[in-house]
Design a protein that fits this description.
Elements: E1 28-34, E2 37-43, H1 56-70, H2 74-82
Antiparallel strand pairs: 1-2
């Protein structure tokens, strides 16, 4: 299965930045890697340059949500990651 895990075209923009929690300014949706897989997050301009650490339970939820945005199953994401794809 050919899937671009970095595709954020159908990912919603959150009301607050996942990095610092601010709700001010324009947020950008980007992907982040975690031990659970790839997830989408909304970040403010200041946090775009930082490495984002997403805790385990939040990462697992985010990965499941991102799979939904991509219209794939978690097993599909696992297969892509196992094929050597990296973020």
């Amino acid at each position: 299965m050919l899937v671009d895990l970095d595709d954020t075209g159908r990912c919603p923009t959150a009301a607050t930045c996942a990095g610092c929690g601010t709700g001010q300014g324009e947020l950008t949706v980007v992907t982040a890697g975690s031990g659970a897989g790839v997830l989408c997050v909304s970040l403010c301009p200041d946090c775009l340059t930082d490495d984002l650490a997403v805790p385990g339970p939040a990462a697992a939820r985010g990965v499941a949500e991102h799979c939904g945005h991509l219209d794939i199953a978690l097993s599909d994401m696992d297969a892509v990651l196992e094929s050597g794809w990296s973020w």
